[in-house]
Amino acid sequence: MARVLRLDLDAAAEGRAVAGWSDATPLGVAQVSTPYADARGVAMELDLLFIAPEAIGTGLGRQLYLWALDQARGADATRLAILSDPFARGFYTAMGASYIEDRPSDVIAGRSLPWLEHRLD
Predict the structure, then answer these.
(1) Between β-strands 79-83 and 41-51, what pairing exists: parallel, antiparallel or unpaired?
(2) What's the number of domains the chain is made of?
(3) Do 69 and 120 meet the contact criterion of CB atoms below 8 Å apart?
(4) How far apart are CA 88 and CA 111, in angstroms?
């Protein structure tokens, strides 16, 4: 599995990752990148947001996504960039992100993934 699909232990140690649990069972995880600047201002990327199938519909995904937005706002970012699984695109747009374009997957040859952006300004 490509490193891009794994929790970065440095991110966890730096507080850029959070998990949702029920008792001793992990049900979800979110991770954001370090802030970066480009011609459009400061941004962060949503590196991970995974929810266990049994946690879908419980509100955990929403909580983790709101956490990621708070992290980006706290870093004075103007946007959160998201390279999404195609099946999660609807979730992100419902949460306020805008679809930008499809981009090739770095993990699965021939697969395209939706690129979205959640504006924070």
Answers:
(1) parallel
(2) 1
(3) yes
(4) 15
d(CA 57, CA 77): 29
CA-to-CA distance for 43 and 38, rounded, in angstroms?
8
Half-sphere exposure of 97 (CA within 13 A, CB side): 28
pLDDT tens-digit map of 74-101: 999 999 999 999 999 999 999 999 999 9
pLDDT bucket at 5, cuts 50 / 70 / 90? low
Average pLDDT over every residue of 25-42: 94
Domain housing 9: 3-119
- At which residue do the structure tokens 């599995």 appear? 1
CATH of residue 11's domain is 3.40.630.30
